[in-house]
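For the sake of transparency, this paper describes our internal protein records without simplification. Because each token names a local backbone shape, the row as a whole describes the fold. One such record is reproduced below, unchanged from the form in which we store it.
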Amino acid sequence: MTRAKRLRLIARAELRRRWRTMKGNTTQLLALAFAGIMLLPFSIGGVFGAYLAGGFVAGSETEPLIEWARVAFVYGWIFVVGFGGYRAYAVALRPDNLDGLLTAVSHRDLISGLLLTELALWSAFFLTVGSAASVAFAVGAGSLLTIPALLLTLCLLLATGIPAGFIIALGVRNAGVRSRLLSRLRTLFLVLLGIGYFALIFTNAFASALEPIYRVLSPTPIDWFGDLAALGLGVGASPFRAIGAVGFTGVFVVVAVVSLYRLSEWLWYADGVHITHEVERSDDRSSRFNGLSRILSQPVFGVVVADWKRARRSPISLSFALYPLIVLAGPIVTAVQTGEIGTGLPLWVLLTGTWVAGSLFALNVVGQEGAALPVTLLSEAPERSLVTGHVLSGALLIAPITVAATVTAGILSPHSVPVVASLGVSALVLSAVSGAIGTGIGVGLPRFEAVSVSRSTKAIVPSAFAFAIYSVAVLIVALPAVIAHSGIAGHALASAVGVNRFVIGLSGTLVSAVFACLVGIVSMYVARDRVRNYRLG
């Protein structure tokens, strides 16, 4: 078998494996379909925008256009390298059964096949939409010679950007397997990177963040891609720089291939560092939770401690509970941009904290026991310890944070002190009771199988359907308190009734508290009854 045929076989097998993996994950498949539906109008709009841009170029002065083309392709290269590097780190460099593959083929063939896979996936979208946009731009500009120039530039952009992303990802992973400190801080680094990415999205600060990178790359041959793309437009593109872009691509590919071979060899054949965790001594545990163990019964106390230990040892398995925090991004960004905290931010903090507190541990009471479920069900009164313990785990952990954050935001906002006090009571009651609301929903819609929460980590998390129903229930329960403390609705109600804002806020707090307690009691009753009568099939 020739080497080229081996590379195609590796790439084809990797594509098939990824498709089978995606088909087995319904949530991921739905997310991909949703992303495709969302990208369709943007793609059509991009093609039409390219046509309008071509018409603009045809009717404009030529001097600044070549500079714009250079800037656009430098930023395009940064985009390809960034997202290509992320995909390489998270997906491409972690094929299934890596050790088995390395016994069948060399590391050179494997890294080349994985790179070919990524190039095929990127080309499927990049060149199809890019081809349509190139034709539309050329028609708008009235220069058909632009079509081959643009298509060639897009190909060179992928041929250099994807390998560059792989090199960066391999460098990061090599550093991780050889540094004990970086291995310990990997999760923290990824969390901070995700927070920074979403912060850039919501603040629209991509240009400011990428400007230093652009200043470094603009004097390099990456800048020459703009001349190659604009060669047929007659806007002052340099033919020598365009030829240089082709030559640079050839040299870069050779250097990149050699680097990929060496870096993949260092990574895949490395012993790597091993992080060992010391076993906690029983006296340390008892001293840490001494006060809690005196208040709670031993079975309930055991469930609470087990939940907290599980969260500390594998925090990424609780990443689903971070989704509600996304709703806070908009209000926080607005507060940062304006320099003022409005009356709405404390309400968002209240709602988000309540949302997280109930979903953290109580939304999959039976399922998250995993292999220990048969032993748990055979214990004395498992329904009391399981249901109560999971509710208290989230309440004791998140309720104090929710109350403190809500009161702090309320004090910094235009709300009066009595209204802030009412908000604090709402935060305390709702975040403490939300776990009880989630128990009945979670027991009715359990999930027993582990799903992928990252490329290399699987965990048992609540089902998406249970999470959606719980989210609606929490929103309905918290609605009276939110409306009563709203700057607009609360003021309108106070004016209509002729009472103080504090009375309206306290009324909303009482209504939500009564509503939440009733729903929580019913939900816990259902959960305990189902756990008591649960039978393993």
Remarks:
- The CA atoms of residues 411 and 417 lie 7 Å apart.
